[in-house]
Amino acid sequence: MKKICILFLLVFLRHGIAQETDSKISIAFENVKMADALKRIEDKTNYQFFYLEEWISAERVSGSYQNAEVTSILEEIFKNTVINFYIMDDKSVVLTQNSLVYDTLPDDYFGKEEAEVVDYEQLEELGPLFLNTKENTAQRTMETVRIGKENRNSTSRTFTLRGRAINFIDQKPIADLAIIVKGKDIGTSTDANGSFTIELPAGENIIETRALGIQDSKTRIIIYNNGVYDFKLNESFEALDEVVVQGNRNRNVETALTGVTLIDVETIKNIPLVLGERDILKAAITLPGVSNAGEGASGYNVRGGRTDQNLILLDNGVVYNPAHFFGIFSALNPFSTETAEIYKGNIPAEFGGRLSSVFDIKTKDGNNEKFSGEASIGPVTSNVVLETPIVKGKSALLLGGRATYSDWILRSLDDEQLQDSKASFFDVVAKYNHTINENNEIEATGYYSRDAFSITSDSIFDYSNRLVSLKWDHKFNDKNAMDVILSNSEYRFGIEFDGESNDDFDLGYKNNETELKLKMKYIYNDKHTFDYGFASKLYNVSPGNINPLGNESEIIPLAIPEERALESAVFLSDSYKVSDKLLIDMGLRYSFYFALGAGIQRTYQENAPLNNGTQTGTEEFDDNEIIETYGGPEARFSARYFLDPTFSIKASYNNAYQYIHTLSNNTTVSPTDTWKLSDLNIEPQQANQVSLGLYKNFEGNKYELSLEGYYKRQKNLLDYKVGAQLLLNEAIETEVIQGDGKAYGVEFLLKKNEGKLNGWLGYTYSRSFVRLDSEFSEERVNNGEFFPSNFDKPHDVSVVANYKFTKRLSASANFVYQTGRPVTFPIGSFEFNNSEFVFYSDRNKFRIPDYYRLDLSFNMEGNHKIKKFAHSFWSFSIYNVLGRNNPYSVFFVTEDGDIKAFQSSIFAIPVPTITYNFKF
């Protein structure tokens, strides 16, 4: 700084301060150093340049100029740099970094007669930017960063600073970092990708950063124009208490969206889960509003919605069956997964196609600085994830794989029919991320999982998920950014039957979808941020085919014709900061759906039930011909109002369309469930939801408290007729009926984030009902009245607690209580052909016994030395400590003329587990 001041002083004393008429020259540069370019201009003219070499040592110049003014040439070669220039009367040229040289002072530089209070808009009328040169000791020792290039014609006195927060050690993004401008009521926080945007007053700003596990920092930022700066921060190695589910510490109070939960995989490692497997989706079930049909059930019920009403995304690609091993494990690798954001209330306008929720799951970026990894060995599965730089500091590759040796579990279950059963699964994931420059990033993710199992000796079932996604992030400028996403997902299942009779067969099913999405972000000002774009998705569903297995099989080959459809949407949302207290997030999505040929659609009599007797004919459609269209507007509105800085009230409304349905007559998701597209005879599902909630933080965010209620109405829910044949049925519309649904509930969450004892208590009271009504008896269930859905469980309590004895030793507990789910019981019997048969009650009139379970674990970490090959973590857990024989289902069969009742359970005994994890 002293050198620069002396330089300016000598130049000004020697040459004066008046500029004169410019001269013209012809000159050309071809990728030469800027210092050499300036030297060539000096040789051709009488101009002489004054600057510090380090300002321009990295810059190179290209360009050709014919009879051009020197001023114009300098403006062109300095255009994309932070260098300004000032020409003296004797053609001496003074270069400055960031700032401008002014030859006049503003009128009020020496003070005014009366002091005035001015806001930023009034400041626009002031003159050049002057900095306070009186620095205290703290300011002299902190890093000083200059951002942007001062523009003489700019009238703005606030500028936008964008950037990312990055862990200096492993180069991974730091989410939920608080960024505060000291002495000014300005602040923000980083998102899940470590990105931030903040409006700063022109001139000097002292920026403080704070986050759990990250060293606090102070940076002196002098901002002259819009610009970019990345915080590269060190980890804090102080002894910190365990935090189980941790987002932005004020996020639950500050955001406008209702019903949003952010789960970090790293922070759930202590929750005791079955067989020691860390599982982000199982952890989600311990939170209010998310449940499933029972132990071992795959699929998730969110706020009274069905399992097919959840959009599960892995890096923007859809996962149709996110479960391994009959729902006991998640199909997502916990070591490669970074976060999961669950939207169960107000869903952002960019998402569509599902009624109840969005699970937006992100794979972590690979380490682009050094080779690293994480692995675990357990009694059922082994898991490994490796990360390696491709171009150091810019790109990295992450590879993960997981497999099981789980056959012994089936042999230990309390069911003789399962003793000879087999089951296996594996999944692999790969992600490549590359930073091209500060404005462009790309990432690519590939994922594949497969399950194969044999419950009986003559049948082998298998199913698989596959997805590929590509994403390009581009920043046009400080206010405009763009994401382009291309993804493809596929789900398959198959059954291979090889029995003693001549009906051996091979059955297959496939569902494939491809989506292109463009998302734009525009920061209009500090009050409005717009997100807008479009998405288009092409479905290809092969409803099933069956072929004979072996030459002696008498099975007749059959292939159900493929279904195709195009679902598209445009969306626009605005995050509008009305005032410091009121924030509104409003969006509109308009979706279009086209059922496409080629195909044949059956037609039926009007005002008649759909069955073979009422069919009037068929309509044939050519390739890509539109069979039927659906669509409509989807409103997304939510608002947050601060009652005080730590207490807010939120309200939301949203409606949605869903054009794809599952066909199932099971109580939960099954590998053999098929998906059905809306067409001429099956309409899309619709839902409307309102919610209202109170959110309060205590003792500096040590405690979080929330209470949220919701009410949801649905229509065109797809259900099955009694005795329906859903698989390999060409006239599927004759086996199903569509009806209405309603759900309502209250969700309570109390969470303790700090201290030796931490965790949360969640309670949900919720009801979910279905009405299948029609003027025709065969399409009417329970007399056309509302009845409980299969997953209606009014009371749901979860307690997750962690206690930290020392830095390395901790214990965890997980307690769950749920009301028993509805079932249909026999209420009478009759005889036919000398055998006794039963007739049943109204659908779902009774309930199985209530469910409760206690899990315990003891966790021991290795020593915390920084310089060691690997950091280890042992987990000793017992699942179902009480040995509760929780019934999964109750069913009745007639054997040898007698009615027998059966109860199935998944884990009826305590299940101990030892798991070893290490990270390097």
Q: Could you describe the 3D structure shown?
A:
The chain is mostly beta strands and 920 residues long. Helices cover 7% and strands 53% of the residues. It has a 22-stranded antiparallel beta barrel. The chain has a 5-stranded mixed β-sheet with strand order 6-12-11-8-9.
Structural class: mainly beta
CATH superfamily of the largest domain: TonB-dependent receptor, beta-barrel domain
Number of helices: 9
Beta-strand percentage range: over 45%
Major beta sheet summary: 22 strands, antiparallel, barrel
Overall shape: it is globular
Beta-strand segment tally:
57
The CATH class of the largest domain is identified as Mainly Beta
* Cα end-to-end separation: 43 Å
Rg measurement, Å? 33 Å
Low-confidence stretches: 1-21, 112-127, 237-247
CATH topology call of the largest domain: Maltoporin, Chain A
What is the count of structural domains?
3
Mean pLDDT across the residues is 82
Instruction: Provide the helix percentage.
Output: under 10%
CATH architecture of the largest domain: Beta Barrel
Domain TonB-dependent receptor plug: 276-353
Domain TonB-dependent transporter Oar-like beta-barrel: 442-665
Membrane topology: Multi-pass membrane protein
Keywords: Cell outer membrane, Membrane, Receptor, Transmembrane, Transmembrane beta strand, Transport
Compile the SSE list and pairings:
Elements: H1 2-15, E1 24-33, H2 34-44, E2 48-50, H3 53-56, E3 60-69, H4 70-77, E4 83-87, E5 92-97, H5 120-123, H6 137-141, E6 143-147, E7 158-167, E8 178-181, E9 186-189, E10 195-201, E11 203-211, E12 214-223, E13 227-228, E14 231-233, H7 251-254, E15 260-264, H8 280-285, E16 290-291, E17 301-302, E18 310-314, E19 317-318, E20 323-324, E21 329-330, E22 337-343, E23 357-363, E24 372-377, E25 381-391, E26 395-404, H9 407-412, E27 422-437, E28 440-454, E29 459-475, E30 480-497, E31 505-523, E32 528-548, E33 558-559, E34 563-577, E35 582-596, E36 599-604, E37 615-621, E38 626-644, E39 647-658, E40 660-663, E41 674-677, E42 685-698, E43 703-720, E44 736-752, E45 757-771, E46 787-788, E47 795-804, E48 809-818, E49 822-823, E50 826-832, E51 835-840, E52 846-847, E53 851-861, E54 871-879, E55 887-895, E56 898-905, E57 911-919
Parallel strand pairs: 2-5, 6-12, 7-13, 7-14, 18-23
Antiparallel strand pairs: 1-3, 4-5, 7-10, 8-9, 8-11, 11-12, 15-22, 16-17, 18-19, 20-21, 22-23, 24-25, 24-57, 25-26, 26-27, 27-28, 28-29, 29-30, 30-31, 31-32, 32-33, 32-34, 34-35, 35-38, 36-37, 38-39, 39-42, 40-41, 42-43, 43-44, 44-45, 45-46, 45-47, 47-48, 48-53, 49-52, 50-51, 53-54, 54-57, 55-56
